[in-house]
Amino acid sequence: MWPTDITKSVAVYHLPTTAGAVQSYPGSADVTIQAALLPMDRKEHALEGGEYQDPFELYTHTDADIRVGDKLVIDSTNYYVKKVFNANYFGGHRHKRCSISTQAT
Fold it and tell me: How far is 32 from 44, CA to CA, in rounded Å?
């Protein structure tokens, strides 16, 4: 679905919570998916707001279980999901767009 030169294997670690308390990430990935990784452009970065360090956009299938706060390991680098946009009816190609950064909080 995505061009092979930008397709990456992504290990997804969900941030567990119990009774509202945040815990540490699990020791092994909850799921591994294939997704497209693109650098976030300056305009998009400005519109996103918030704190981003080394910002990227991750595009994946709509059924991928990715949530805000998840840790993603891509090419041995830890990224953290800042925002998730579900594009169910956007441009005729259903996908999920995640804004990610190497900064945890």
Answer: 27
Angle at Cα 33 formed by Cα 42 and Cα 7, nearest 5°?
50
User: Which amino acid, residue 64?
Assistant: A
Residue whose C-alpha is closest to residue 88's, from 51, 59, 62: 62
The pLDDT assigned to 6 comes to 87
Q: Which tens digit of pLDDT belongs to each residue from 59-99?
A: 999 899 999 999 999 999 999 999 998 887 766 778 899 99
Which pTM does this prediction carry?
0.83
DSSP character at residue 24 = P
